[in-house]
User: Fold this.
Amino acid sequence: MALVEIRNITKSFRKGEETIIPLDNVSLDIHEGEFVSLMGPSGTGKSTLLNLVSGIDRPTSGQLVVGGVEITGLSRSKLADWRAANLGYIFQTHNLIPVLTAYENVELPTLLLKISAAERRQRVRVALEAVGLTDRAHHYPRQLSGGQEQRVGIARAIVAHPKIVVADEPTGSLDSETSEQIQILLERLNRELGITLLMVTHDSELSRMARRQLHLDRGKIKELASENQPVSVSAGGA
Amino acid sequence: MLLPWEYGVRNLMRRPLRTLMTLFALTTVITLVFVVVGFLRGMERSLSISGDEQVAWVFSMLAEENIETSAIEASIPSLLTSSIGSTFNRFDVDYVSPELFLGTRVTLPNQKSGFGLVRGVTVTAPLVHRKVQLVSGSWPQKNEILVGRLAGTKLGSHDGLLKVGDVIEFEGASWTVSGHFQADGSLYEAELWCRLEDFQMATKRQDISLVALQVKTPSAMSEVQLFCKERIDLELTSISESEYYAELREFFQPLRTLAWVVVWLVAAAGVFTGLNMMYGAVAGRGREIATLQAIGYRRRAIVISVLQEGLLLAAAASLVAGVLALVLIDGWAVRFTMSAFRLRIDGEAIVVGCLIGLLVGVLGAVPPALRSLRVDVATGLKAI
Assistant:
């Protein structure tokens, strides 16, 4: 059974007189431990799909099951609780809370979990170690470089041991050298910790690091390459 | 689960100048609230403490409770003593005080003048008016006056101008200050007391304004009323002192209502100050708020965090305003139509002022907090 089961998802919205359909009857399975990249031209619905899987947006129609939970039917509060327990989100612009230190930023998701203070400290320490930022734990975001900020963002995304981590153009705001470091880090997290990753990117080099590469265009998904078989991808109407 | 407390606290420090300006504005607003509440508490206390339920005032029926216009015969006190058996008596002294009471223009030692309240009394006056205590100097002799603690305020002057030995003028005569008295904050403290006979001579009157007498028990007040009703030839009426001041409190009810309107208007200004600050604070945090939601924080946690910021600021402003009120406003003497009294910042005023301050904080933060959640998370994440 797939970790993420996307069944006949359609997302449409109105913009003035026009109806825009960024996702049209899309189906997709993502298995546990997979590193999936999603590429495609701007405005083709990559981020929309990511937001749907994250439970921060709702589809117009279709079914979305993550870890056995049908998330499209959850209330806003239940979705928030679900995200806290099951999802890690890596943002393009890091989105760290500027008034909190790196440690406190990483600690934020763990405050939503029913774990002891000792375990919380342990998890934050391990997450910061995983991204190599133990020595910057008590620095504020303004005192960190762009790459360091993104590594804090990655630590924050993995600290709660989520079922899936989604990344929206994680290297989009970084220079090439820092991008490479982040690419290596993401690949290592997937390989060593078995973290399931769904990543939207414009960066073909980064995309190639993923074990499975998808392409989204005009609302349809196309499989470009995959290490694992079988792969469940379908684009409805195709 | 709520956001960490530090998040709210540190958010206030993001824009320190704006936070300080808002703190200053809120402190000003809450201090103004304290001034009005202190005024109300002071007036309330001075009116409530002024009444003694064992003291009756007997005065002219024609005066319609305006004691200054009352004129009754000087023989009435002895008539009352002999007719009313429940008059308080100790060591053969009847607690009956004939008094001539007038509002008159008083010229101060610095030649400035003000409208003062003068009461011509005999030595029995402090027996009937039990709260009156001589605090300095001596009982007035011929053409001397005893000055109440707030008489200077009532005259529009400062107390330093009415030292023992100073000379003032009213009713065409010169009067030397012989001492000072206090009366536990009651309205008597705004008066000037002199000997009855001297005041009668100065005003060229032989009558008196009223008789204040102390009865043995509050229920004996009916005996005084019965006497006034039976002796219609004397055209007298009576009222207990506490009843008189209770009616005066009723009379000033519209003023109290107006004062509360002022309190709420001032508080509204504070709410707008808070709104302005919190809208500004939250407006620039769209992406951050969306991020918190994406991480898994519920909308309620974010609203509470924004409220926490507003409340924290309002609490700090209330604290500063409370200290200012206790140090600067408490005991501040103010002149009022019929008298003078001191602003009173007591426990109740502190509670009311701080609660209004906190309410201002909450009301100033709720709309921005709700507005911050109006943008959906996906859009918020892309906000600049």
About this structure: The interface with chain A takes residues 1, 3-4, 6-7, 10-11, 13-14, 287-288, 291-300, 376-378, 381 of chain B (CB under 8 Å). Chain B has a mean pLDDT of 89.
